[in-house]
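This part of the workshop introduces the protein records we will be handling. A record pairs a protein's sequence with a compact description of its fold. Comparing a sequence with its tokens is the quickest way to learn the format. To make this concrete, we reproduce a full record directly below:
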Amino acid sequence: MSITDDDPRTVIKALDSKDGNLWKKFMDEEMVALDKKKTWDLFKMPTRRKHIDNKWVLKKNFSVECKVKKYKARLVEKRYFQVEGIDFGDID
């Protein structure tokens, strides 16, 4: 078993795990940091445009002794759903 096999693949699995409270704490910290940096603005979506989905990437960093050293929770965009010329670039 590799170390990365222990990382939760979904938010539900993370929150339902024995470390659920820790995952929630670090997800909350990530949201506060994104808000503090003014990462996004809310606005009404133009018609015929798709929003960019996002997902949580959850990872554990381990020490040499194979103990959890750090929990990392990052909210990332799923930009691979966008199409150039339709969703970004020279569009009207």
In short: The mean pLDDT is 84. The chain has two helices and two strands. The longest helix spans residues 20-36. The chain has one domain: 3-37+51-81.
